[in-house]
Write a structure and sequence with these properties.
The chain has about 400 residues and is α/β, with parallel strands linked by helices. The protein folds into 2 domains: about 140 residues, Aspartate Aminotransferase, domain 1 (Alpha-Beta Complex), CATH 3.90.1150.10; about 240 residues, Type I PLP-dependent aspartate aminotransferase-like (Major domain) (Aspartate Aminotransferase, domain 2, 3-Layer(aba) Sandwich), CATH 3.40.640. The chain has 13 helices and 12 strands. α9 crosses α10 and α12 packs antiparallel against α13. The longest helix has 22 residues. The chain is globular and about 60 Å long. The two termini are about 30 Å apart. It binds pyridoxal-5'-phosphate (PLP). The site of pyridoxal-5'-phosphate (PLP) has 13 residues, from α3.
């Protein structure tokens, strides 16, 4: 019966029944006209989701990592300099990918639990008077630490010294859970995936490409084939794919977008904020510490929590799964053993979040954590009770 339990990993997320049903379609010819009528509105709605009027939307059969690779290989050449900060496992992996593509990666090392250092970016960009830096890369929501970075501040750092570098943003675990504004923030390339806020199965990288980034594809010399933006756009213009499309995922995506816009994007973000705040109040009631260093960095899609000295976070996550059949996120990289994560993004309600908090409390108590059983649940309940009426009227 544990298949009935929600997951509290920060992606892949729980797939709502309407989306699972939408994906249960029989194979059809992707060159038939029905495919075109499915694909076109999906691409148009994705533009609305990224909040862009002018970017091209590209969907690759791949996970989010393929989106990183597509971004880098389509627009940059070996030896090109990129500026990036490392403050968690996902910013680290993106750096690694850039290095393996022979980019000249200038890394700013930051303490994990902090976010993109707009002030340090501003210093480096101002010093780069001959404009060697071709792109600044930012992980919007660092899923390993539960930290949200300020993209508008990074854009201001670029604009402050009139630097022409492009701005690439990983929004894999923020898109469709927290506010994302491609055009307003001057993002040149935004990379996301299907299995987080979009509530779908893994298997699709979704990339939004500004016209400036499209222009860069003409001069970039990094080898690319499967992920070539131009091949995909040409095929999409004829409502097709340059290869076999992930048909069932596209049907699922259509339903996912319909559900998000029916709820209203601002209501979706409000729901995530409310759920995240309930989790943070539970953490405070347990007397535990968040990995995110300060409130303006708090993520509304995932919370990373330090375990007390002398406890092992991996053992806690394993015990919650073994004893109660519920999955939470382990600590990654520097956080391994030191922190666990509660994912609260995608298709989730306050009732579901309470079940996750109750479960991890039981697991902590079983392992003799110094917490009071029920304290975190009660703190979250108080928050959910206090905000229930507003949440109901927003969703109506
Ligand atoms: C912020 C972030 N970026 C990139 C990735 C990599 O995506 P994928 O595992 O879909 O390749 C993840 C995965 O969790 C992520 O959270």
């Amino acid at each position: 019966m544990s298949g009935q339990n929600p997951v509290f990993i920060p992606g892949p997320t729980n797939i709502p029944d309407p989306i699972r049903h939408a994906m249960a379609v029989q194979t059809m010819d992707h060159r038939a006209p029905d495919f075109a009528t499915t694909l076109r509105p999906v691409l148009a709605d994705l533009k609305r989701l990224f909040r862009t009027e002018t970017a091209e939307i590209i969907t690759f059969p791949s996970s989010g990592t393929g989106g990183w690779e597509a971004a880098v290989t389509n627009t940059l050449s070996p030896g090109d300099k990129v500026l990036v900060a490392r403050y968690g496992m996902f910013s680290h992996r993106w750096i690694d990918l850039c290095q393996r593509h022979f980019l000249d990666v200038e890394v700013i090392e930051c303490e994990w639990g902090t976010g993109a250092p707009a002030d340090l970016f501003a210093e480096r960009l101002a010093a780069d008077t001959d404009h060697q830096i071709k792109a600044v890369l930012v992980t919007h929501n660092e899923t390993a630490t539960g930290v949200l970075s300020d993209i508008a501040a990074v854009r201001a750092a670029l604009d402050g010294c009139d630097h022409p570098a492009m701005l690439y943003v990983d929004c894999v675990s923020s898109l469709a859970s927290m506010d994302f504004r491609m055009d307003e923030w001057g993002v040149d390339l935004a990379i996301s995936g299907s299995q987080k806020g979009l509530m779908l199965a893994a298997g699709m990288a979704i990339v939004a490409v500004s016209q400036k980034a499209m222009k860069a594809t003409e001069t970039a010399t990094s080898p690319r084939c499967y992920f070539d933006f131009r091949d995909m756009l040409r095929a999409n213009a004829a409502a097709g794919y340059p290869y076999t499309p992930p048909l069932q995922l596209i049907f699922g995506l259509r339903k996912s977008l319909e559900m998000l816009f029916d709820e209203g994007l601002d209501n979706v973000f409000g729901r995530h904020h409310r759920l995240a705040e309930g989790v943070r109040r539970a953490v405070a009631a347990w007397g535990l510490e968040l990995v995110a260093k300060s409130p303006e960095l708090y993520s509304d899609s995932v919370t990373a929590i330090y375990v007390p000295e002398g406890f092992n976070a991996d053992a806690l996550v394993n015990h919650a799964y073994d004893a109660y059949g519920v999955s939470f996120g382990v600590g990654l990289g520097e956080m391994a053993g030191r922190a666990f994560r509660i994912g609260h993004l995608g298709a989730l309600t306050d009732v579901m979040v309470l079940s996750g908090l109750a479960t991890i409390e039981m697991a902590m108590k079983d392992l003799d954590y110094p917490i009071t059983l029920g304290s975190g649940v009660a703190a979250a309940q108080e928050h959910f009770r206090a905000t229930a009426r507003a949440a109901m009227s927003n969703a109506a």
